[in-house]
Design goal:
Elements lengths: L1 H20 L1 H31 L5 H37 L3 H41 L10 H16 L2 H6 L5 H15 L3 H5 L12 H7 L2 H8 L4 H5 L2 H7 L2 H24 L11 E5 L1 H11 L5 H14 L4 E4 L4 E8 L2 E2 L2 E2 L4 E11 L2 E6 L6 E6 L2 E6 L2 E7 L2
Antiparallel strand pairs: 1-2, 1-10, 2-3, 3-6, 4-5, 6-7, 7-8, 8-9, 9-10
């Protein structure tokens, strides 16, 4: 209902404006609307960096605003041209054509302007509906109804009515926004409405490199933010939360985040919904937790003559130092051992002091070779049934995939 009311108001007001301004100005405005719609996308890409330079660094907001500004600039240019042409024609008929021709001209000008105003009304209706669609696609999926501000509720109501009337199909047919804009909204809406999916999100292989950044780690460990998510607080409260705002205002981090998202959005959504992704073929990718029991099995196999008392001592030592150890393998072939003893011997840790060891992995299928800084020699890695075993450089260790 609201869309039809909006359409009638725009059509009537633009028809009245056309009657007042005349056919010349309205015709130029119509051409400006059409060209503005065509050029808004390409020009928006040029305007986006300017918006970033003046402080609007969030690409999810700056992109639609840049497109809208491009449309406004083109429309203003044509309105200026229209005014100039209208003035020249009016001067001719007023001072050189005679009273009869002036009267006929003015009647034709205004009546034709009313008709052209209807075209402008239709064009502006589509434009306004596009704005509603672009904004509403995000806000409707993250609506909390009770806590949303009135303006957000109005946008959501308009967005819903836009879909009910089927007018969203018209908007989509001329929409300059890239597909990944809407795919990102789908993913964010899925996460917002299902807070428990964040645990699965943290295990998505493409995000493993990003997860090592201090800002992301700090946010992941923030209990206040976790509580806000569980309570499903309004999306604007989450976006304005200081740690989140710091990430949004970090252009380098946002660029890397958006680059990662653009490459894997469809796969990310599939992973969130099913737990399956295109990275499943590379078995080593992901986070792994230290497996004490299987590590002891490996040590007994490698030392069949070891006395039970000796193995018990080794187990206690491993339990005291490696319980919190983890291994991460990222798509960029980065290998990370966390909470790992600074000095490791074939008989177990030689010190209780823990550190993070980084290196790289290579290989395929289930067989890999790890090269870790600070460890002498390469380590052979093997994956079988969600268990990763490491042998070499004086190590016998096992890890299980993080749940």
């Amino acid at each position: 209902m609201t869309i039809w009311v909006l359409t009638l108001v725009l059509m009537a007001s633009l028809a009245g404006l056309g009657l007042r301004q005349g056919a010349i100005r309205v015709a130029f405005s119509f051409v400006g609307i059409l060209l503005g719609a065509v050029l808004a996308g390409p020009m928006g890409k040029l305007i986006s960096p300017i918006l970033g330079a003046v402080g609007l660094k969030n690409p999810l907001i700056s992109r639609p605003i840049a497109v809208l500004l491009a449309f406004i600039i083109v429309s203003i240019i044509f309105k200026v041209i229209a005014f100039s042409v209208h003035q020249k024609v009016e001067v001719y008929f007023k001072y050189k054509a005679g009273d009869l021709r002036l009267s006929l001209y003015e009647r034709l000008l205004h009546r034709l302007g009313l008709c052209m105003g209807l075209f402008n009304g239709a064009a502006y209706t589509i434009l306004v509906c596009w704005i509603i669609y672009v904004l509403g696609y995000w806000t409707y999926q993250t609506a909390t109804s009770d806590n949303d501000p009135p303006t957000l509720k109005i946008v959501n109501r308009l967005a819903k009515d836009l879909e009910v009337t089927g007018f969203h199909k018209v908007v989509r047919s001329i929409d300059p926004m890239p597909l990944n804009y809407y795919q990102t909204a789908d993913v964010m809406g899925l996460l917002y409405n299902n807070p428990l999916l964040e645990a699965r999100l943290s295990r998505y292989p493409a995000f493993l490199d990003l997860a090592e950044m201090p800002e992301i780690q700090a946010l992941a460990a923030d209990q206040t933010f976790s509580g806000m998510r569980q309570r499903r607080e309004p999306i604007m409260s989450l976006l304005t939360y200081q740690p989140v705002e710091a990430i949004i205002k970090n252009p380098d981090l946002m660029k890397e985040l958006m680059t990662t998202l653009k490459q894997d959005l469809a796969d990310l959504r599939q992973f969130l919904e099913t737990g399956k992704s295109k990275y499943d073929t590379e078995q080593i990718l992901g986070r792994w937790q230290f497996d004490l029991n299987f590590t002891m099995i490996m040590l007994r196999r490698s030392k069949p003559n070891a006395l039970p008392a000796e193995m018990t001592k080794v187990k206690r030592l491993l339990a005291a130092t490696l319980t919190k150890s983890s291994f991460t393998a990222t798509p960029k072939h980065k290998a990370i051992l966390k909470n790992f003893p600074k000095v490791m011997t074939p008989n177990g840790p030689a010190t209780a002091e823990l550190t993070t060891v980084q290196g790289e992995w290579k290989g395929a299928d289930t067989k890999y070779l790890l090269t870790m800084a600070g460890l002498s020699g390469d380590i052979a890695g093997s994956v079988e049934n969600d268990r990763l075993t490491m042998t070499g450089a004086g190590l016998e260790m096992a890890f299980v995939r993080e749940d």
